[in-house]
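User: My collaborator sent over this chain with a note saying "see what the structure looks like." That's all I know about it. Can you take a look?
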Amino acid sequence: MEDESLHRKIEEVLASTDGMQRAEPRPFLFTRVEARMQTEKNFWSRVSSFVARPVVAFACIASILIINAAVLWFSREAGTVSAQQGPELATTDEYNQVNYTLYEFENAKP
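Assistant: Without extra context I'll predict from the sequence alone. Here is the result:
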């Protein structure tokens, strides 16, 4: 009995798909979508499409690497100059010689 009702329900579900047709878009839908995509080019989409080009991306990466190399090169030269002026530079011991706080009062009595 249960097999018959189950079989009947399965047949009803399968029969419900008999009248189905394939969905079709309205005429010229693709051309309308394409036209809208062409007209909606704002400033940021133009900038992102320009930056996404491989030539621009490689040029930006190369310029960053060149700037980093220049900074390292000039900092190395500046480091050798400061090493030659060693005695003129103050050390941390010279800065820590005087440590006064507000709570250390001197005795004013002789």
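A starting point for your reply to your collaborator: The first helix runs from residue 2 to 15.
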